[in-house]
Design brief:
395 residues, alpha/beta, eight-stranded mixed beta sheet, six-stranded parallel beta sheet, 13 helices, 22 strands, binds cytidine-5'-triphosphate
Length: 395
């Protein structure tokens, strides 16, 4: 079980920290909360105690409690500290080594990552003193989760607003959901459809929604990898902790992959790349005539095939996808050799809950060692299973 230390300081956004604590508890994280004394003016500690099932530590002296021991043991057990919302006061104290209360003494005793989510009036946030303090904290490795812009509680409009709770939760889960077994590894993932232009108005594409590739990228980031996600157009939310590269055509995707491929440890090709594109792109809109119309097409470059057969000296694990409508295993295993891949993730478009547009997938992982038939599971879990095998092969 992972342990989060949530430090709540005096900001009107403190009430939102209850939802944040609850989201982590629901995800199976053990949450301890420390509040500054002033924060208790905004939200009652009982709220956090009820949600987390732990005593909420506050900066008042309670004779029934051995704080000096408690705060050090909390610091030792924590896998992550989130200061959310963070006031200008606590940022100023931490940046200058002032440890005069439960929150600051405990944070200073922590060796785990510390995330700071400031929430305050725009002018306070933009004040150079505050900005200098944040820069100083960044130089010590503390990470800022930047506030967003909007209507603030004080009536001003500008930056300084506490980010949506689900975004803070996702940021936190990058540190808490998995062991960081992919730390130090570079993972490249392709996702989504490509678009091949026909004229300035029209293009050829496919039904890929990008869900599978995004799920893999998210899993890899949560496991500590340095992730690049090269993606065609999707409606999905940007995954946290991932370098996103947006592309349009198969050629754009190829260029983006080839630029990075030598350095990657694991490459997973989940994109639905067009196999053909119009031989020429008409410079002007193609007008209709009374005749039938056909489009001359040429092959696009096969990205997986190119990197699979041109490997760098260092070990690399390369995964392709195959979507088949018949002879799933035969067709997919032929791709293993043809494309020089280490694994082909095969799915049948005939299986319910598999393929484009769903949050689940039913796949077979095919390697030269054999095949693993996975039951229907979430795309996130499929991503983890692929990464598990890649990691075993590379270690
Ligand atoms: N792929 C690629 N570059 C292309 C085409 C495909 O990298 N130009 C990758 C896909 O991302 C996927 C795998 O190759 O990982 C799919 O292989 P492909 O032979 O295109 O599969 P199908 O389209 O299913 O092939 P076929 O039409 O021959 O069944």
């Amino acid at each position: 079980m992972k342990h989060l230390l949530l430090v709540v300081t005096a900001s009107i956004a403190a009430y939102k920290a209850a939802d944040l604590a609850h989201a982590f508890v629901k995800a199976g994280v053990d949450v301890h909360v420390i509040m500054t004394k002033n924060a208790t003016n905004f939200i009652h500690p009982l709220t956090f105690e009820t949600l987390t099932q732990h005593k909420c530590l506050i900066d008042t002296f309670d004779r029934n409690f051995d704080y000096s021991v408690e705060h050090i043991s909390l610091a030792k057990q924590s896998d992550l500290v989130m200061v959310a919302p963070a006031s200008a006061d606590i940022v100023g104290k931490l940046a200058n080594g002032i440890a005069d209360d439960m929150a600051t003494t405990t944070i200073m005793a922590c060796t785990c990552p510390v995330l700071i989510a400031p929430a305050m009036n725009t002018n306070m946030y933009l004040n150079p003193i505050f900005q200098d303090n944040m820069k100083k904290l960044a130089s010590y490795g503390y990470r800022e989760l930047k506030p967003v812009s909007g209507l603030l509680a004080c009536g001003d409009v500008g930056t300084g607003k506490f980010p949506p709770v689900d975004e803070l939760f996702e940021e936190g889960m990058l540190y808490l959901s998995h062991d960081h077994d992919l730390a130090g590894r570079k993972v490249l993932v392709t996702a989504g459809p490509t678009e091949e232009a026909l004229d300035p108005i029209r293009f050829l594409t496919n039904h890929s929604t990008g869900r599978m590739g995004y799920a893999i990228a998210r899993s890899a980031a949560r496991r500590g990898a340095e992730v690049t996600l090269i993606t065609g157009k999707t409606n999905l939310k940007d995954p946290k902790g991932v370098e996103l590269v947006h592309i349009v055509s198969a050629q754009d995707m190829a260029d983006a992959v080839f630029k990075r491929s030598e350095e990657e440890d694991i490459m997973i090709f989940a994109a639905a790349v067009a196999d053909y594109r119009p031989t020429t792109i008409a410079p002007e809109k193609i007008k209709k005539s009374d005749e039938d119309f056909s489009i001359p097409m040429e092959r696009t470059i096969d990205i997986l095939n190119t990197v699979g057969h041109n490997r760098p000296a260092k070990p690399q694990y390369i995964v392709g996808f195959a979507m088949e409508s018949e002879n799933l295993l035969d067709n997919a295993s032929a791709k293993l050799d043809k494309k020089g891949a280490d694994m082909i993730v095969a799915n049948s478009i005939r299986d319910t809950g598999a393929g484009f547009g769903t949050d689940t997938n039913k796949v077979v992982l095919l390697t030269r060692e054999g095949s693993t038939d996975l039951p229907l599971m979430s795309k996130d879990e499929v991503g983890d299973r692929i990464l598990d095998q890649a990691l075993i092969a590379l270690s």
